[in-house]
């Protein structure tokens, strides 16, 4: 029995078909699953619409129609530099460090409403706005002397505003406060004057004490002579 060119072409076609079918089957098989890691949630998206949230582990999805977007729900840190004006119109620059995590029960709504770029869309602008609002309530000197109070006010306000976007604030810290060169020089001069005044006061107290000691001693000597 002889094989013709047609038979050879048919054999190659069948072989190629089997290979293609095998590859497609592998793609469909591996595309049907998605592993969501520890500390993550998987947002199930079907043709652009959020259909649910998947827990950590191996999850099934419909290939080509559904996808699972992994979202980190562990503690994250955002640190940005902000500039604002104090109530006495001093320019204040500070670095704000924010520790936060996403609400695990609301990552589906967060992804639907905001998307995955929530840092630049929500967190950074809110930090800027809250720091400006808080700074404007205090003088530059109060920002230094009442730093803990300012931090608490900022934390509370940020916590309320970010919770609206399903973001939970854990802590807020001011890395540093920087002021203009003129203000820094004025503060330094004030501190120096206060230190000089305190030194002079202490010296005066010492002189008064020594004078009182001499008077007491003189009275003692006079009494001794009288006796």
What does the model show?
The model has no long low-confidence stretch (mean pLDDT 82). It is rod-shaped and about 145 Å long. β6 and β7 (91-102) form a beta hairpin. Strands 3-2-5 form a 3-stranded antiparallel beta sheet, covered by helices on one side. The chain has helices at residues 5-30, 107-113, 118-135, 140-145, 147-163, 181-226, and strands at 33-36, 40-46, 49-54, 57-60, 66-72, 76-85, 91-102, 167-178. By secondary structure, the chain is an alpha+beta fold. It is built from 6 helices and 8 strands. α3 packs across α5. The protein is 53% helix and 27% strand.
Widest β-sheet, arrangement of strands: 3-2-5
Radius of gyration: 36 Å
Number of helices: 6
Question: Secondary-structure element order, as H and E?
Answer: HEEEEEEEHHHHEH
The outline comes out as: rod-shaped
TL;DR of this structure?
With 227 residues, this protein is of the alpha+beta class. The protein is rod-shaped and about 145 Å long.
List the SSEs and their pairings.
Elements: H1 5-30, E1 33-36, E2 40-46, E3 49-54, E4 57-60, E5 66-72, E6 76-85, E7 91-102, H2 107-113, H3 118-135, H4 140-145, H5 147-163, E8 167-178, H6 181-226
Antiparallel strand pairs: 1-4, 2-3, 2-5, 6-7, 7-8
Helix pairs in contact: 3-5
């Amino acid at each position: 029995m002889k094989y013709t060119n047609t038979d050879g072409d048919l054999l190659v076609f069948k072989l190629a078909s089997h290979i293609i079918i095998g590859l497609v089957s592998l793609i469909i098989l591996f595309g049907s699953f998605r592993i969501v890691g520890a500390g993550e949630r998987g947002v199930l998206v079907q043709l652009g619409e959020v259909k649910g949230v998947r827990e950590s582990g191996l999850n099934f999805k419909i290939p080509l129609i559904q996808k699972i977007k992994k979202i980190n729900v562990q503690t994250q840190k955002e640190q940005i530099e902000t500039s604002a004006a104090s109530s006495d119109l001093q320019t204040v620059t500070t670095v704000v460090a924010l520790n936060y995590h996403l609400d695990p029960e609301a990552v589906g709504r967060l992804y639907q409403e905001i998307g995955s770029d929530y840092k630049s869309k929500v967190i950074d602008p809110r930090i800027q706005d809250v720091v400006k609002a808080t700074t404007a309530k205090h003088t530059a000197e109060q920002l230094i002397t009442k730093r803990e109070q300012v931090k608490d006010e900022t934390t509370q306000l940020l916590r309320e505003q970010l919770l609206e976007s399903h973001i939970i604030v854990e802590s807020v810290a001011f890395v540093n406060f920087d002021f203009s060169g003129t203000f820094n020089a004025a503060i330094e001069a004030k501190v120096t004057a206060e230190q000089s005044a305190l030194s002079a006061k202490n010296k005066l107290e010492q002189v008064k004490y020594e004078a009182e000691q001499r008077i007491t001693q003189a009275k003692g000597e006079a009494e001794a002579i009288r006796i």
